[in-house]
Task: structure prediction
Amino acid sequence: MSITEQALPRVRETAMSAPDPPASAFAPPPAPRSERRAWLLACSIGAVGLAVLAAALGGALDRTSSQAPPAVLVSAATPVPGASSSAIATALPRAAILARPSPAQQSADARRFAAATQAHVATAWMEGFYPVYAMAQSTFGVNWLLLASIHMQETAFSTAPSTYHGLNFAHCCGGPMQFNVTNGPVSTWSLVSDSYIYARRPAAYDHMTSTHPSIYDDFDAIMAAAHLLSADGAGYALDGSAWVAAYDYYGHDATGVTYADEVIARAIGWSQSGFCINCGVQPALFAAVHAAYGAPVLAALR
Result:
């Protein structure tokens, strides 16, 4: 018998005499603790985080995405002398809505208007005004190109240094649309200051003031201008009625005639060729508008 064989009986005896192992020794190991709930919680938190991030990015994109100008409703024809509307005939006896500026103020205004046409305005800056123009047009039935042209004439689309604070050189008018707050009673601004209540305010735009109405709030001011122009007979057409409304907007004097000629010529040019932020008034259109609308009124003033 080999040494190995001699050892085997002892091993068997030891194995036979050893106590049986507990049943738990042969039971399958306990399953690991389920991580399903933890994964679900992590996924839920991740989903919420992604939603918040998407909302934040979406808001940022909304603020920076390209905004197209409102649709041009009417392509205006170049006015022809002698074919002006009857509105020109009624322009003379009406009282100016805005305060009549002095000769010195008229001269300063003429220089101001010339400077406005030389301003360069960024496309991104203009995009904030398009929803406001569209809302004013749909609410008061005034062609947004007329509004934009007056906006350009008054403050070069709100880029003039004192647009959002104080009053102008004549200490009478302020804000993007240069409303008079000192004439009257009742002042021009007071007449139409509540115009913003007739439409829903855009969720966000530049220079939103904390209190309303405000001549320094772009929405409040542009809505008020549309209301005033509508009350003076302006509509979708860029015709003699629109010219008279622009004339009333400034005041009844020689500078007011030039003002209305420039405003209407610019708006007609946009209507015919597309909205152009930094394009000047076409000389041929200015001459046509003056001959049709401005010249008869200017002659009567003299």
In short: Residues 69-301 form a domain with the Lysozyme fold (CATH 1.10.530). Residues 47 and 53 are 10 Å apart (CA to CA). The beta strands are 173-174, 179-180.
